[in-house]
Amino acid sequence: MAGEPTPRSDPVPEEEELQTMAEKESWLRARGVEIESPEDRRKAAEAKAKLAHPLDHVEGITRRVKYVKIPCDASRPFEQLEAILAHDAHGDILPDVLAPTFAGGGSIDSNAAREQAVRQLGAKGLDLSQSALENATKQGSAETFALVRPSATNGHRGVYLYLDEVGMLKSLPPNDRADGLAKQCGFDGVRFYGDMYVGAVQSEPSPMCNVDFYVTDLDSSSEWLKRAGAENFEYDQNMKQLQDAMREKGGMSGGFGNADGGMPGGSGEKYAWTQTDDEVEIVVSAPAGTKARDVLVTFKPRSLTVGLKGAPSESGAPDLVSIDNTFRATRPDESTWTMDGDKVVVTLAKMDEQVWHELLGLPNDDPEWR
């Protein structure tokens, strides 16, 4: 009847009617309120991990790639695993496949995390919030460690460890077998935490892609493992020679390399750059007395700006370095910077593990790179 109040068809129950948290969550969900519990996050991570299940394989559309799990519990055997990738997938895809497996697994030591963030990000690391730390734990993130990089001497086949990016901060148990594997490859004193994974990539013919890695490849008699120590020593020597040459010689715009495997690097006005398989490091000269709080760094997939706060709009001074188009794409969310005296040390995370022959790329009008 007109004028009469409309009765509530969905009354809110009295507080005593909802005795448990589960009942309250159920009541809220029934009314369209989204609630994510720890169990929900666990199930979501498991569902995402199942995307790589062998049953998803479709001949001609996807391909299987084998890799190995090294449990941190030494009483458990190595596990042969298999990922399903798009048939034309290129680059190292295993970090994306494995990230969900590292979701959760413990809380982060916030003090240790901030100390590490300050070392990597400078003053920006002080702003790291507890919620950001918790989010890093919930979502999961995989980090790579090169046991041996692709080169002509190993048929351009590299072998990598994949680990929980914040495993140490979660206080996960050490993985002694992974430590031992790294030591066999010439990396003495490194420590890994939690379950680890090992996979392989083939860099040539281009583009780079994941290839099979078997449990038997972990045998000490494997050819790649017998050569790894010498290859890593040679790589370190080449990188040292490159860095020494860059300090001694100015005016190199790029393309610096050598037949022994040194990767291109160079220098320009106010900066010098080097690279590894997965990162490009740019050392930018700043005015004497510059502190981290004075610096502003802007990362984009194909551009980089390093400047001083207030410049140029307020002070009229130009940016220290402004690169409108890098040689290849980068990952802004994984790129960092820090201060070393009066130098701003910028580390760009490569989108793929391709060699940069120059720091600057050709103009690219494709908006996805900007």
Walk me through the topology.
Layout: H1 21-30, H2 38-49, E1 62-70, E2 79-86, H3 94-98, H4 110-121, H5 130-139, E3 142-148, E4 157-164, H6 176-184, E5 196-202, E6 209-211, H7 223-248, E7 266-268, E8 271-275, E9 279-285, E10 295-300, E11 303-308, E12 321-323, E13 336-340, E14 343-349
Antiparallel strand pairs: 1-2, 1-5, 3-4, 4-5, 5-6, 7-8, 8-9, 9-14, 10-11, 11-12, 13-14
Can you walk through the features of this model?
The protein has helices spanning 21-30, 38-49, 94-98, 110-121, 130-139, 176-184, 223-248; strands at residues 62-70, 79-86, 142-148, 157-164, 196-202, 209-211, 266-268, 271-275, 279-285, 295-300, 303-308, 321-323, 336-340, 343-349. By secondary structure, it is of the alpha+beta class. The relative contact order is 0.10.
Quick description:
The chain has about 375 residues and is α+β, with helices and mostly antiparallel strands.
